[in-house]
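$ ./design --mode recover --in tokens.txt
reading tokens...
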């Protein structure tokens, strides 16, 4: 069967590349993936693969049944949405929607999932059970399409035994994949702070309470907290990327707004830091006779790869690609809403190498020049199909 999977992955490669290029050329933002979902639905209809559309907005759920006896249900997730970025690549499949770009590889993930389904459909006489394919909207925007799809029952009727997903990895050469057991990616919360003082004419310091100075004092206190946290064993990131004080050279504003992110690898520690951020702000507010509001928008949880599932998936990948093409990957402080699934059922989120230095395909995700070596799509479809088959046919 492995030979058949490799043959089919090679045979449909040109088709999967065409899927990827179409989706890449027509990117849509989170919760706006109408045409993307329609394109995927059209392909599924052509192949006579049953699906349900418009789940949690633009989500699609496929139930592909094998012809042998089997009760296992394996879910595979791929995302639909793009990012608000102006693409700078000069390629035939460049984004046609100015200011919107598939800069995180979700075009790759959706195309690869279509290809995986195509392979598994053509081999369905050789496996039993159900493949539950999830084409998910809004991975890039809180509260995360995964959480909304879960709330809409995507993990029920039938409930998957486990869930798989791959993600492009531009630091890894194409033809390779990467795995990590256990904790892999961080939680991600957004921090919104409003510092309220008293505005006025800059020439009259006795008549105002400058929120810019108060904000600076708060950020300095947070910097000390960041240094303190470096001594802890739990990886933690607190960073601020935006500060707005709408005053002028001679105008003191009434308030200053600060925006940032908080990421960590432990859910209990996550709650502890939330309280620290708020208590530091409250202390400074009292000392400066000001008001400081700290709003923490809860984002994605830590992403946990089930050790047993990940080990089995890695072994299947080694069997399919060769051990030299399967690598161990380190912890990352980035996040993905796949984490919501991993807290509900066993999950394995692995990385797909997409780099080709000879062709200059080296840009990281979330940049205007991100692209992939499209030969990686054959690796993606074949490897994912083989992992799924090994899981379905195992005892």
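writing sequence...
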């Amino acid at each position: 069967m492995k030979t058949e999977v490799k043959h089919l992955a090679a045979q449909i490669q040109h088709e999967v590349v065409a899927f990827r290029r179409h989706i890449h050329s027509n990117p849509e933002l989170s919760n706006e993936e109408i045409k993307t979902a329609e394109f995927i639905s059209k392909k599924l209809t052509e192949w006579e693969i049953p699906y349900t559309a418009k789940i949690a907005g633009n989500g699609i759920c496929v139930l592909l049944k094998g012809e042998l006896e089997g009760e296992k249900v394996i879910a595979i997730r791929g995302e639909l949405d793009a990012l608000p970025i102006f693409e700078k690549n000069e390629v035939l499949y460049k984004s046609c929607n100015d200011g919107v770009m598939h800069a995180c590889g979700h075009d790759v993930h959706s195309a690869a999932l279509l290809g995986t389904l195509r392979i598994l459909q053509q081999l369905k006489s050789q496996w039993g059970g159900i493949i539950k394919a999830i084409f998910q909207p809004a991975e890039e925007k809180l509260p995360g399409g995964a959480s909304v799809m879960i709330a809409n029952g995507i993990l029920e009727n039938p409930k998957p035994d486990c869930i798989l997903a791959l993600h492009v990895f531009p630091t890894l050469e194409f033809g390779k994949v990467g795995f990590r057991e256990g904790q892999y990616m961080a939680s991600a919360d957004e921090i919104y702070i409003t510092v309220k003082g008293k505005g006025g004419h800059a020439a009259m310091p006795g008549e105002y309470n400058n929120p810019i100075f108060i904000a600076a004092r708060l950020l300095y206190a947070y910097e000390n907290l960041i240094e303190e946290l470096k001594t802890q064993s739990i990886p933690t990131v607190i960073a601020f990327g935006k500060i707005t004080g709408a005053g002028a050279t001679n105008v003191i504003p009434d308030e200053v707004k600060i925006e940032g992110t908080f990421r960590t690898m432990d859910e209990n520690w996550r709650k502890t830091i939330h309280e620290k951020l708020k208590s530091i702000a409250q202390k400074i507010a009292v000392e400066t006779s000001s008001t400081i509001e700290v709003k923490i928008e809860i984002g994605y949880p830590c992403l946990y790869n089930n050790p047993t599932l990940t080990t089995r998936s890695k072994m299947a990948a080694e069997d399919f690609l060769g051990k030299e093409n399967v690598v161990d990957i380190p912890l990352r402080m980035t996040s993905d809403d796949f984490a919501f699934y991993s807290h509900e059922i066993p999950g394995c989120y692995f990385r797909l190498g997409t780099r080709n230095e000879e062709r200059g395909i080296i840009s990281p995700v979330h940049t205007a020049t991100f692209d992939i070596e499209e030969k990686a799509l054959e690796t993606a479809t074949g490897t994912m199909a083989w992992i799924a088959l090994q899981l379905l046919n195992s005892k």
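exit 0
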